[in-house]
Write a structure and sequence with these properties.
Number of helices: 4
Shape: elongated
Strand content: under 5%
Radius of gyration: 13 Å
Distance between the termini: 25 Å
Number of strands: 0
Length: about 70
């Protein structure tokens, strides 16, 4: 899943609107809509705020190199 799908699905599970998410995360509704459409380039700070509201966190890991 990509960020767009994760945010939209989790927001639906929690039953919150795009406007609710924007207000709780302290970002514009246009930003939430852009994220859910997969357009734009949100900052890490913005993504973190969204995920915090959704009760999620991001994890970074090193990929295995196949070869």
């Amino acid at each position: 899943m990509n960020l767009r799908e994760v945010v939209k699905q989790r927001r639906g599970v929690l039953g919150i609107s795009q406007l609710d998410l924007a207000e709780m995360a302290g970002i514009s509704i246009a930003t939430v809509k852009d994220v859910e459409r997969g357009v734009g380039n949100p900052s890490m700070k913005t993504v973190t705020r969204i995920l915090e509201v959704l009760g999620m966190e991001m994890e970074f890991r090193i990929r295995r190199i196949h070869g």
